[in-house]
């Protein structure tokens, strides 16, 4: 039996950030993100669920501290800026609230405690950059299960996931990573341990 067609197309995830005329993509700086990785148990569970439902997100499961952005700064300068920004940032807890459905997307929504919002705002102001419409006041920390869900599959997928319970209800973030999108792949440029001032 041939494999079933995909029910999501993750390439649609970055349409707002990449909404540029044809032929200009090579002129733009790459997209960067500041992300937290979920613990192995939750990461594996999300990947297995994606495989079972035949859906995809963009890159490995992660929580954005800010949405993908473009900046004139190079990688070395970005690492230096975020190293300074995060030098005295302590580890923090992420509380999972439950499933959330948006047009063409499914995700695990997370709580917005004051310390996480403050860190998000510091990250937004750290470098000259573009800003996505879902940053700032609209920032919603989350772990994406599926992006680019095709309209005919939305109701079916919601019924599949809305009763699923993730293996953990919260986790501690002890490090953040600066990532870069290159040719459709997400590369990890640098990892910053939290609460460990002076580590490079």
Automatic annotation (TrEMBL):
InterPro entries on file: 2H_phosphoesterase_YjcG-like (IPR050580), Cyclic_Pdiesterase (IPR009097)
Protein name (database record): 2'-5' RNA ligase
Lineage top rank: taxon: Bacteria
Entry annotated with the keyword Ligase: yes
Annotated Pfam families: 2_5_RNA_ligase2
Keyword Ribonucleoprotein listed: no
Region of interest: Disordered: 1-25
Keywords, alphabetical: Ligase
Gene Ontology molecular function, alphabetical: ligase activity
């Amino acid at each position: 039996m041939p494999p079933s067609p995909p029910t999501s197309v993750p390439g649609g995830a970055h349409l707002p950030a990449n909404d540029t005329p044809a032929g200009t993509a090579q002129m733009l700086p790459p997209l960067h993100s500041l992300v937290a990785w979920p613990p192995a148990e939750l990461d594996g569970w999300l990947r297995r669920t994606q495989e079972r439902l035949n859906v995809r997100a963009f890159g490995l499961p992660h929580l954005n501290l800010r949405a993908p952005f473009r900046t004139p700064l190079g990688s070395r300068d970005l690492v230096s800026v975020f190293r300074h920004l995060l030098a005295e940032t302590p580890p923090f807890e992420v509380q999972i609230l439950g499933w959330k459905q948006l047009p063409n997307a499914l995700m695990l929504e997370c709580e917005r405690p004051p310390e996480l919002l403050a860190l998000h705002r510091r990250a937004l102001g750290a470098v000259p950059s573009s800003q996505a419409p879902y940053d700032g006041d609209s920032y919603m920390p989350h772990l994406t299960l599926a992006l680019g869900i095709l309209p005919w599959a939305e109701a079916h997928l919601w019924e599949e996931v809305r009763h699923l319970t993730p293996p953990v209800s919260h986790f501690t973030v002890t490090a953040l990573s600066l990532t870069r999108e290159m040719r459709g792949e997400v590369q990890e440029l640098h990892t910053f341990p939290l609460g460990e001032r002076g580590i490079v």
